[in-house]
Write the structure tokens for this entry.
Amino acid sequence: MSKLKYALYTGCTAKESTPELLSSTLAVARKLNIELVDLVEASCCGASHLQDFDELLSLTLNARNICYAEQRGLDVVTICNTCQLNLVTTKERLDHDPEMKARVNEALAEFGLEYKGTSQVRHFLYALIDDYGLDSIREKVVQPLKGHNIAPFYGCHNIRPSHLHHKHNLPQPELEASEGGGEVSYESEEFLGKYNRHENPYAPTSLDDLIKALEGNAVEYESKNKCCGFHVDLQAPATSNALSGTALLDAIDNSADMMVTPCPLCQLNLDLKQESAGKQLGRDIELPVLHMPQMVALALGCTPEEIGLDHNVTRATHLMYEM
Amino acid sequence: MSTVTQKVTIKAFRFNAETDYLPYYKTYEMEVGKDELILDLLNRIKWEYDGSFSYRRSCRHGICGACGIKVNGKPVLSCKQNALELVDLFGDELVFEPQSQKRAIKDMIIDKGDFWEKHAAVKPYVEADIEAHPASETIMPQTKVEQFLDADYCIQCGGCHYACPVLEVNDQFFGPAAFAAAYRFAIDPRDNAATERLESTAQLGQGVWDCVKCNECVEACPKEVNPFEKITRLHNMQFEQGVAKRNVATKHAEGFTRSIKKFGYLDEQDIVLYSEGPGVVKHLSEALKMVKAGKVHPFDIMKKKMPRSENLDEIRTIIDKVQTSKLD
């Protein structure tokens, strides 16, 4: 396998309140010999809120973010579900709305930038699973997560809307054509068969498969594809607490000893709000919530500093020593 | 019809609010052909197994919106949804449930009263002073029609409404179908009640600011209305038409520009302080937990720990030049 190389769009959270996400992502990449080039020019994606205020501004900033990956000739990987959805929503819009693309490019032209649409944008989870491959990950496991009941929490913006997920998170068929397979259409059975990871938003499997590849037990529970409520936490904390608390309790009631999520916004909400959610729902909630790369880093034998479990709010450091 | 069939096990939710204390599931096994719809299977349960099995159906071609149910948690319009397609997605055991179990009256039939109440609350019709016998018809340019054409495809099936997690925990919330209707009429050039609709859907608690952005509604819609996109448009229109009032939610949306201008990144501490104002005290216990875990740095007055984008001038220029919305 040739060395995988991507432009890393970190988003804000990984460089602020979840430093453990960034350190574990970089550690996993190092272990797997994946090169991640930080998009240092990138700005905030607007976190699904800026677009409510000013759509054109949100599109322009995100087009600029993608431009810097295009300039480097690299595909983007994201480590936050909401960044992922914001970037691909922008991409989808500009790739299909020439008028909007022209408006955005007019604003970018001043800096010698032009959005072309040549870079794919995918979440790191799918780059790991589809490009690096579960079998290759399995070979690198030095600390199997045996005996751990891990509840996968998928996070909305990676799996819904499913048409955006299918189109952007999966490897592009053109890549396969270059392997000598000739023209492969995205809709072809050959392609769909090869990448049987069309995440069914009502029964997603990718994170379950990753947990199993690391030899953990993937917990089956209804809330795994549900919303954590993060995006209304300021204006409607009762909604947010009810959603996150219900998901956590569902995982606990199904014997989870930790939860894992590819989204730092879900992670923050689920990790930080356990006390207030528990109060609201009338039950004690205590469940370590790991970032997806933290879990992988544990299994790959990364250092405690890299995994950064001491940055988790709900005590998670014991997981390091239980391995 | 193809002779190739597949054996499917159906577990159907059964409940009669008049006689049953609790709902239960009954299993039916049948050979299903490739052209059969979920509605065909509902009919077969009723016709071949149990005449008391109840569900709503009427038009049989995806326009009346009566036959919405959930199959393995996925909202479907029974008369449009091919059955074996769902077997491909979920395996050969299909679970038939009403759109909302807590509203079940009999088997698949639910009390949709809350849906209609909220739909009516946004005035889902054009309000205009139009002469009873105008000399000519109202001409609407195509560009205007295109702004609401897809929203107009809504058949009020309730698929998105009963997929929305907010409605499960907030009774006041209008929900995605009502928002799509509010948008559809607010953007209609003949309509005079746009401001009223924007104001009611701007109110915290019932309005668009309580949407969790989960996209369940987009996924649920059998007519590709994309209610979430309409919710975003309602947000935008609040700012464009000066309806947005300063509150925690509007300041939160607008406040992103403050940080991005300064750092390129979102200043996570500032956005909470700015949006909440004095209300920020309620976050104290969580803030302390974050400080303890090394997630926030309250004494970093000079913002030395804040990341900064390279070529920040570009970002500032873009905001200055491109931003058109404002919050007064």
